[in-house]
Amino acid sequence: MKIDAGLMGSLDTVGDRAESMEAFGYDGLLTAELSHDPFFPLVLAAERTERVELATGIAVAFSRNPMILANIAWDLQEFSRGRFTLGLGSQIKPHIEKRFSMPWSKPAARMEDMIDAIHAIWDCWRTGEKLDHRGDFYQHTLMTPMFSPGVSEHPDPKITLAAVGPLMTRVAGRVADGFVSHSFQTADYLRDVTIPALEEGINDRGRDRSDVEISIPLFVVSGSTEEEVAQRKQGVRQQVAFYGSTPAYKGVLEHHGWDDLQPELNRMSKAGQWVEMADLIDDDILSHFAVIAEPSGVAPLIKERFGGIVDRVQFSADGDREIWGPVVEEIRAI
Predict the structure, then answer these.
(1) Residues 135 and 258 in one domain
(2) Do 57 and 167 reside in the same domain of the chain?
C-alpha cells in the first residue's frame, strides 16, 4: 500500500518541504486547489525531488477546459520526468457557477467527456494524427504544429478522479487511471456502495480492476499525549460534522442508520453553529470515519479496514520521525 501526504503552504518553502517529505518515505505528494493554485507547487517539488510521485489532489476540472488541462499536465509530466498525475474533481454547482463563472450541467457526463477529450489531445500530440474529439460538452478539432508539444519520452500522465456519488464513481471506473474516495467515507460504505459502483464503470469499458488505483484520504487521530489525542479528536469531529451537513453526503450517514443526523447538521450549519455541530459526532460515529490509535496501532488498523481493497492512503504523519517513520514503512508493507 502506498502512502501520500499533502504538500501545502507557501511557494517559498515548498521545495524544502518536498525534499524532506521524500526523504521521510512518502510515495506521493499532493496539492489541493483551495486558496492557491495547485500546479505551481508541483513545479518546485519536481525540481527538488527524484523519486516521489507528484499529483494534484485535486484540481477543479470544470473551472478549466480539456486543452488547458492537457497542456499543464503534459508540461508537468515532462518536467517531473514522468512522475505527474492529474487529479481532478468536479467541485459543486455554486462554486463552479458563482466562484469560477463557468457552466455547470450533468457533472458526471461532462467529466467523462472532459477526460476523453484530454486523452484525445494527448493522442494527437503523440501520434500526429488529426485531433477530432466531438463530445456532448467539448469539441476539439484543431491542432497545428505550432501548438503541439510533440512526442514525449514519458508516458501520458495518469488521470485520477475524485468522486462521492455512484454516477461520478462509475465515470472513474470507465475513464480514469485512479479513483480517489472522499475522506467522508467509512470502510463499510466503501465496500458496500463505492467499490461496486466503481466496478460497474470498470466493466462498462471492458477494463480490469488493476487498471484503476483506489486511494482514500484518512482521518487519523493519534498522538503521544492525551491532550494531543483529545485535540485531534475534536478537530476531526468538526470536519466530519462539516461534511455531514452537506446533502450530497447524506447517503454515507444513512448507510449506517444515522438518517436524522444530516438534516440536523444541515440546519445547524445554516444557523452558523459550526462549533456546536461537532457535539453531534459521538465516539461511535467518529470511530467509523477515523483511524483512532496510538502510532504503533495506526498501520494495523488501516490494514484491518482497507487491506486488499485500497491501493494507497493519504495522510500526513506529522511529528517525530523516530515515531512516525516506522509507521510509514509499516503502511507501505501492507
Answers:
(1) no
(2) yes
Q: Which residues of 20-43 are buried (b: 16+ CB within 10 A; e: fewer)?
A: ebbebbbbbbbbbbeeeebbebbb
Query: Model pTM greater than 0.90?
Result: yes
Looking at the structure, tell me whether residues 74 and 143 fall in a common domain: yes
Residue 251, sorted as left (phi over 0), alpha (psi -120 to 50) or beta, turns out to be alpha
Calculate Rg over the CA atoms of the chain. Answer: 20
Q: What are the cell numbers at 39?
A: 500546479
pLDDT digits (tens, 9 = 90+) for 137-175: 999 999 999 999 989 999 999 999 999 889 999 999 999
Q: How many Å apart are CA 317 and CA 319, to the nearest integer?
A: 6
> Could you give the C-alpha distances from 167 to 162, 252, 269, in angstroms and in order?
12, 15, 27
Verify that 268 and 237 share a domain, yes or no.
yes
What's the mean pLDDT in 266-284? 96
27 and 61 both lie in a single domain: yes
What's the number of domains the chain is made of? 2
- 27-83 confidence digits (pLDDT tens): 999 999 999 999 999 999 999 999 999 999 999 999 999 999 999 999 999 999 999
Pair 263, 171 in one domain: no
List the domain range (segments joined by +) for residue 254. Answer: 223-290
Judgement on whether residues 161 and 203 belong to the same structural domain of the protein: yes
What are φ and ψ of residue 62, in 5° steps? Answer: -80, 0
Mean pLDDT of the chain: 95
Task: Specify the CATH number for the domain of residue 306.
Answer: 3.20.20.30
Provide the H-helix boundaries in 250-332.
Answer: 250-255, 261-270, 274-277, 283-289, 295-306, 321-332
